[in-house]
Structures are given as structure tokens and as C-alpha cells.
Amino acid sequence: LNARKTADDGGIQGLTDVLGHGKLFADVGSCHGLTSMAISKLYPGTKIVSIEPAQPSWLMQQLNLRCNLEHDEFKKIHTVLGGVGHNNEDESSLMAKMMWDPRSTTTTRSWTPDYEVKESHIELIVKLRQLKVLLAEANIFGEAIDVLNLTCEGCEYNLIPQLSEQEFEAIPTVIGMVHWGYIPTKKL
Q1: pTM for this structure?
Q2: Which of 2, 3, 51, 168 is most buried by a 10 A CB count?
């Protein structure tokens, strides 16, 4: 998170045209909720859905948001515990193994290479659900996402390809990070 830079330069400034009253910000891989909290402060009235798959990080996010936001601000951020995946009606039980580092404030990864695994890492099993299902858990039904923030350490390779071309084109702004792997260039 670089709060001083514009979205074009890896930050969250400069989103005034796409965030604010009645707009929807989906924060996928929200960890401790810092980006969601900053969006809440910078762009009042924005609906925020904060999605985090790692139970310990999600719990810390709850504490962070409750301790650092006024009650009314906290209630405007819809937090969802869940992992984004490509489940459908035929595959309703896909799970992912993730490595959580209790000493890290930002990372839970489903792709940690063996040489990076440490004794302190804790293995978590997360049920994967489609983005629209996770949004529905936050009582967001059929609303267009105005800004999609992907800082989910690899889930972008499940999330982006699962969207139809029409769904992807309907999201005006996608920010975040792309991690190792491959997304077809037609989806970039």
C-alpha cells in the first residue's frame, strides 16, 4: 500500500472519479484491512467489501477495523472470510492449502515454494468460492464493481480468468499486483 501514489503508480490516490458515494470497492486479499480502511477515509460513501482467506489475518483485520474506525465507518466495510476460486455448481467443494506466516503482516500464499517455507509457517485449508458468491455474503447482489483491488498473492490467476469478457470489461478499474504465473494476454 502506497497511500501517496496514484493508482497508475501502485497507490490509491486519484480514484475520485471511480470511488465515492454509491460506488463499490472490492478488496480481494485484504489481510489486515489497511487498504479498505484507507479507501473508507479517502473516498467517503464508498461501499467496501474486504475479502480475506486466512482466518488469523481476517481476525486481526476485525480488530484493526474496530479499533481504528468510528462505529459508523466500521459498519460500512463488509468483511468476508473466504478464498476466491473458480468453483461452480459441479465443483462446490474446491479447497486451497495456504501457508500463513504469523510474523508477516501482509502475506498468506497458496504458492509458497518449499525453499521459502519456515517452521513458523502454519498451513491453512480454505474453501474457494466465486467472487460473486463472496460478494453475496456481504449482501452485494448484482452491483457493478467500480474498483477491484487484487493483492491476493496468486488468486488473480483464478479470479480474472473465471470472469466472462463482459464481466471483466464492466469493471472500470482494476488495481493491485500480479504474482508469478500466467494470465492470457487477452485478459490483461
Answers
A1: 0.83
A2: 51
